């Protein structure tokens, strides 16, 4: 869609106050979105992912409600690529601890995302400096035991090797390295 269409969609979301609507209505709205035919364009889905979920997820200070989780899982079941590019990327880049956000991304990786989106999350995580916040996300990605393209696997190993001194006392880092060595032993030389 054209930039004007995106602005119109953002304006409609703002007018309908979708970013602050009650979460049980969010579930209904996402169900309605999934029933639309034809499917939303990538750009429209990205705008909706941002408008519907970004503020809610970034402001989490406790585990998400079952309604929010249902809406997230529902939306990302059909529009996982734009969802990951907008929401997951923002969570990964958000400074600070973000414990609830990290747990949420891990849960989505473990239970909702298709293999290509799991690889997308890994590539997004490897684009930013490694931190304690990112280690559980990488662990969740490896826990899926997806086949990784050689270049992505090599980037993961290179990143882990380069960052080893900074994480010398990190148990999460040690667990991540063990997971790589265990799950991908045939690829590690």
From TrEMBL:
One biological process term in Gene Ontology: interstrand cross-link repair
GO cellular component terms, semicolon-separated: Fanconi anaemia nuclear complex
Domain Fanconi Anaemia group E protein C-terminal: start-end pairs: 8-188
One Pfam family it belongs to: FA_FANCE
InterPro entries: FANCE, Fanconi_anaemia_gr_E_prot_C
Protein name (Swiss-Prot/TrEMBL): FANCE protein
